[in-house]
Each structure stands twice: as structure tokens, then as C-alpha cells.
Design a protein that fits this description.
The chain is of the alpha+beta class. The chain has one domain: Alpha-Beta Plaits. It has three helices and six strands, in the order βαββββαβα. A hairpin with a 2-residue loop joins strand 3 and strand 4. The longest helix has 12 residues. The chain is elongated and about 45 Å long. It starts with a strand and ends with a helix.
């Protein structure tokens, strides 16, 4: 099992979700976050408002997958998020030790969905 964490541009969220759904990845957690990478200090436009300074609005995706879905998930995120510009984001892949579905107490890969 893997936990895939991606930090992407807010404007690319709908495209990433579409690509994930096409890859049959349907379970996703989305959070709005602030941060910066190499583009610190660069002005961005988000929903018509200019963002200045070193903390920019980003979207964090967290997706737990079984090992056989990890590469498809990464490819879908890249396809949906990539613009070729600085600030497209990052993907982190972590081993997921355990997953437990609270309702049924199922554990492991079956609990992921």
C-alpha cells in the first residue's frame, strides 16, 4: 500500500480529478494549503486576485492506493497538473503501513476501497 501526496496548483484540481477518475482512482482527500517552492516571491493570480509574498495557495491531494494502482495514480496526477511552468507541484510516495476502515474494521488493501 502507498500513500501518495501531491501538491498542485489550485487551477489544475479539476483536470487532475478528471484524470484520476479516468484511471479509476476514485478515493481522494483534498486540502487547501499555503506554501512555496522555487517560485517564492513570484506573483501569481488565483481566482482573479494577485498573490504576493512567499506563501502561495496550493492544493494538497492525499490518495491511499494499493501497490498496483500507484503508478497509474502518479501518471494521472502528472497528466492533469503539468503545465511545464515553475510551480506545477510535487508528488511524494510513502509506504502505507496500515489502513483501517472504521465502519467494518477491515484492514489492509481491502480497506482502501
Amino acid at each position: 500500500m502507498k500513500l501518495i501526496i501531491a501538491i498542485i496548483q489550485p487551477s489544475r484540481l479539476e483536470e487532475v480529478k478528471e484524470q484520476l477518475y479516468k484511471a479509476e482512482i476514485n478515493l481522494i482527500t483534498v486540502s487547501e494549503v499555503l506554501g512555496h517552492g522555487r517560485q517564492k516571491g513570484v506573483t501569481e493570480v488565483y481566482r482573479g486576485a494577485r498573490e504576493h509574498g512567499n506563501l502561495l495557495r496550493k492544493v494538497r491531494l492525499e490518495i491511499a492506493v494499493n501497490d498496483n494502482f500507484a503508478e497509474a495514480t502518479v501518471k494521472a496526477i502528472i497528466k492533469g497538473a503539468k503545465t511545464g511552468e515553475t510551480g506545477d507541484g510535487k508528488i511524494f510516495i510513502l509506504p502505507l503501513e496500515q489502513c483501517i476502515r472504521i465502519r467494518t474494521e477491515e484492514r489492509g488493501g481491502i480497506a482502501i476501497g
